[in-house]
């Protein structure tokens, strides 16, 4: 009976999706697939996984496969490659149906959806669609602020102040009846700090070191919710090039410029792939990328150095946009510090561990669930760079709002939500790089 149900439902799906608007009413393929699969799941028994074997070698699977290839314009070089892709497609379809069945039972907070990555295994997906290099190289120590000559100026200021105070103290002692001068060690005017001391505002509660020269009024206060999407450029697709580091950092800087200056800019990801001291399409580092942009005084506009989804010969011009005065990063695992930095400076370049849930993430879209990725036991070994653009609370659950680089057709129009304050869910609290503009 279940076999007949599956066959009937998927054949119906194939018949409905004929690229004819009369049958689909202009609806996208994904909506039709979601609807028919959900109807099928509503009638299935709890022994779902064993019943999914009917998809193997069935005419239903082949018809759905043809529809999938046509919709996503998939072409394969050899029959052997197509056979391999078909096997991965069926495995992924089974996984999606199984996980969405758990969602309908209230065991999962978000749904999965079949998308352009449906013919890729998770290992292959990680290899081609991520691109953050392993920890330990190219990253700055957590909490460090990098700004040209900042540390030197601070040290010189402290030493000069200390020497002046010593001289004044000696002079006060040698002059009977002399009152302590306004600059002596016994008097501190508002806003002045003795050597070696920094007020609480210098080191916010989250542990993020903020340079006082660039700190803005009210920066130590955080909002209940933040959403910077209106300041962001449209979501882009990195393609099968491990350049997520370039997309994450440029999006964060673009958003910060729009937020702080009101100016819209679009930085060249291709310049970072071709010219920065990273590994092109084989991955890169967030700290190294910020360093390169700062030292170069910005990047070329995307319009003069467009993205090509592959590494090419470095080709630079003199035109530059998006300069930054410096950058910093939050303490590892400190989500309160990330919240502070996000409120103070703007979007953060961060990282996450990719899973099959992220590969096929689709939110809830039904009023049930929360759209928030919350995976028990999710690894914190990050491998994919993203941009954190907000945070909030939904139905009592704290979340981060994250921008991805897999196109606007993925997830929630290119974005996703992930649990906040849950022990750095999937490693989301590992990095929080912000720009100072």
TrEMBL record:
Peptidase C1A papain C-terminal domain span: 222-436
Pfam families: Inhibitor_I29, Peptidase_C1
PROSITE patterns according to UniProt: THIOL_PROTEASE_ASN, THIOL_PROTEASE_CYS, THIOL_PROTEASE_HIS
Signal sequence bounds: 1-21
Region (Disordered): 169-192
Keyword set, alphabetical order: Disulfide bond, Hydrolase, Protease, Signal, Thiol protease, Zymogen
GO biological process: proteolysis
CDD domains membership: Peptidase_C1A (cd02248)
UniProt-listed InterPro entries: Papain-like_cys_pep_sf, Pept_asp_AS, Pept_cys_AS, Pept_his_AS, Peptidase_C1A, Peptidase_C1A_C, Peptidase_C1A_papain-like, Prot_inhib_I29
Keyword presence, Nucleus: no
Molecular functions per Gene Ontology: cysteine-type peptidase activity
Residue intervals of the Cathepsin propeptide inhibitor domain: 65-125
Gene3D superfamilies to which the protein is assigned, alphabetical: 1.10.287.2250, Cysteine proteinases
Similarity annotation: Belongs to the peptidase C1 family.
Protein known as: Uncharacterized protein
Organism: Rotaria sordida
